[in-house]
């Protein structure tokens, strides 16, 4: 390694980091790995990205790259036990980062294979970075040294934009893979449409329609997501409560809050940790509770505005990307990996 003048949080050595994730189009990469990579490069370290979706030839290349690295950070991917052992043999400083309950099936049911692979990577990792307390506890139960590093957002990406839609507009942002939670909320949304004069904006990569509530489907893009959110009045985050969803890390809730929107959410996963009832939003489970929450925020514009201001403040204080990335740097420094 080549000596460099010490930087803030660094021991003055150039370290070689290998970051293994799904790719630029994956939210976990965009919100967790890429900000960390940018900060490491600012501190003078070398960062290389590798895809985690690999065949046999690609895995051989990954092992070769790991052998040339000082630290390997694997995000979410549950490689088989023998491959994890080989990876650990190539680089003893292995870190596992995850922001989903990857140890169960996506419907919340148990999976012996996933559980076994999760245990393998957790036990062989120097440390584990978990997106919420539930995930950290799962890693600790298998002997991992776990630290909670919440998913975070850049508050300045969501600069205030006051030109709201004329009609009171609820917004949901997500992808086809998470659209099932919106679909599961269909009875509540239909009830809202019958009881309230509102529209629903869906920002995503799929089409959806309801009978009683008008829907505007907007394609997601990094360039327009902030403005599309800011023009709405309330962010919604319906979610089922099971072993999979408890591992969700509240990204959409944080995006709404950073946009100054009050949030109506199910009390599940990190949503229940991030959202403060009657301060940044409201919880709802039954269709009747969803209707009551929307009616209240629509009828009380000052409450709606105050919840939104509170939400932006909470994001700045607890979930600002620069602060969370600094916590990552602090953990690396404490372990002698900077």
Strand order of the largest sheet: 2-1-3-4-5-6
At the fourth CATH level, what is the homologous superfamily of the largest domain? Glycogen Phosphorylase B
- Mean of residue pLDDT? 93
- Which CATH C-level class of the largest domain is it? Alpha Beta
Give the number of helices: 13
How many domains in all? 2
Pairing-aware structural class of the strands and helices? alpha/beta
What does the largest sheet look like? 6 strands, parallel
Number of strands: 12
General form: elongated
CATH architectural category of the largest domain: 3-Layer(aba) Sandwich
- Residue stretches low in confidence (pLDDT < 50, at least 5 long) are 1-10
Rg from alpha-carbon coordinates? 21 Å
Q: CATH topology of the largest domain, which one?
A: Rossmann fold
| Separation, N- and C-terminal Cα atoms | 12 Å
Order of helices and strands: EHEHEHEHEHEEHHEEHEHEHEHHH
Strand content: 15-25%
Percentage of residues assigned to helices: 40-55%
Which key terms come to mind for this protein?
six-stranded parallel beta sheet; Rossmann fold; elongated; alpha/beta; 2 domains; disordered N terminus; 338 residues
Task: Kindly summarize this structure in a few lines.
The chain has 338 residues and is an alpha/beta fold. The protein has helices at residues 27-42, 56-67, 81-90, 112-124, 133-140, 179-184, 186-195, 225-230, 251-258, 271-274, 287-299, 301-318, 321-334; strands spanning 16-21, 46-51, 71-75, 94-98, 127-130, 146-148, 169-173, 199-204, 215-219, 234-237, 263-265, 281-283.
């Amino acid at each position: 390694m080549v000596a460099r003048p010490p930087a803030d949080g660094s021991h003055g050595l150039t370290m070689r980091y290998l970051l293994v994730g799904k790719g630029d189009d994956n939210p976990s990469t965009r919100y967790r790995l890429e900000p960390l990579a940018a900060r490491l490069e600012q501190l003078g370290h070398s960062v290389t990205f590798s895809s985690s979706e690999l065949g046999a030839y690609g895995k051989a290349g990954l092992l070769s790259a790991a052998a040339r690295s000082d630290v390997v950070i694997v995000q979410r991917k549950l490689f088989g036990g023998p491959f994890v052992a080989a990876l650990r043999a190539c680089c003893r400083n292995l870190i596992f980062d995850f922001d989903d309950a990857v140890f169960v099936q996506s419907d919340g049911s148990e999976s012996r294979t996933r559980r076994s692979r999760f245990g393998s990577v957790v036990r062989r990792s120097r440390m584990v970075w978990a997106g919420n307390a539930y995930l950290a506890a799962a890693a600790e139960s298998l002997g991992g040294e776990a630290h909670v590093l919440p998913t975070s957002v850049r508050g300045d990406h969501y600069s205030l934009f006051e030109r709201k839609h004329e009609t009171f507009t609820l917004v949901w942002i997500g992808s086809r893979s998470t659209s099932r939670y919106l679909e599961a909320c269909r009875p509540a949304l239909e009830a809202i449409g019958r009881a309230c004069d509102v529209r629903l904006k869906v920002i995503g990569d799929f089409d959806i329609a309801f009978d009683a509530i008008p829907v505007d489907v907007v394609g997601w893009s990094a360039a327009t997501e902030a403005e599309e959110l800011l023009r709405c009045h309330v962010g919604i985050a319906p979610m089922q409560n099971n072993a999979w969803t408890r591992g969700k890390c509240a990204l959409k809730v944080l995006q709404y809050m950073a946009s100054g929107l009050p949030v109506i959410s199910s009390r599940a996963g990190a949503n229940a940790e991030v959202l403060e009832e009657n301060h940044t939003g409201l919880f709802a489970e039954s269709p009747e509770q969803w209707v009551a929450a929307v009616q209240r925020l629509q009828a009380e514009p000052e409450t709606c505005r105050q919840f939104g201001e509170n939400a932006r403040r909470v994001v700045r204080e607890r979930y600002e990307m620069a602060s969370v990335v600094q916590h990552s740097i602090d953990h690396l420094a404490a372990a002698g990996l900077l």
